[in-house]
Design goal:
homodimer, mainly alpha, Arc Repressor Mutant, subunit A, 6 helices, 2 strands, DNA binding (chains A, B), HTH_HxlR (chains A, B), HxlR family transcriptional regulator (chains A, B), transcription (chains A, B), transcription regulation (chains A, B)
Chain lengths: 115, 115
């Protein structure tokens, strides 16, 4: 067996990454944020962007993102009442992370799926 | 209600991001990859880096990462037999994504937790 360098991983890096992972976990949160990168939207418009998310799940995930201050929900006192979702500055700060996710997703697809 | 630009999210972006998300999903895969960024390691060394992962879960997640060609597993015919894990080139290609995850995790912590 070759002699290899074995350094312990930086606990600071591990913690920060786990914080981020906790926020973006699951199948729907990142797609929701990507959808709202394209502008303020109503519930049905987000659902249309994502395609295969159930209303119940979308509603739950929007709530979680709102609690974490990634998106904001605005209620308009119109007839009928209108609700719109948009990214907060914290939500917009995810843009570079999403770009890297996209880059790596493409790379992975090319390497593994081969197209 | 103001008139706002409402563009549909790019389906290509959504698909690539979902590919990437599927690979890194869960609490442990990213920490495992971070641990192995610091060098080839044995099971116990990875477990020590991460801290609170159970052996059963770690074993399951290492297997999933191996199936997706993110890590490789090498068996040494020593006494006792030794198993080592390391990142493949595809695993190493996650470095920029992990950096952004770390950056955003720090930013999020400062904004929300306030420290």
């Amino acid at each position: 067996m070759k002699n290899k360098t074995k350094n312990e991983a930086c606990p600071f890096r591990l913690r920060a990454s786990r914080d981020a992972l906790e926020i973006i976990q699951g199948k729907w949160r990142i797609p929701i944020v990507i959808s709202l990168m394209y502008g303020t939207k109503r519930f049905g418009e987000i659902q249309r962007d994502i395609g295969d998310v159930s209303p119940k799940m979308l509603s739950q995930e929007l709530k979680a993102l709102e609690e974490n201050k990634i998106i904001s929900r605005t209620l308009y006192d119109s007839m009928p009442v209108t609700v719109e979702y948009s990214l907060t500055p914290l939500g917009h700060s995810m843009e570079k992370l999403l770009d890297e996710l996209l880059n790596w997703g493409n790379h992975f697809r090319k390497e593994i799926v081969g197209k």
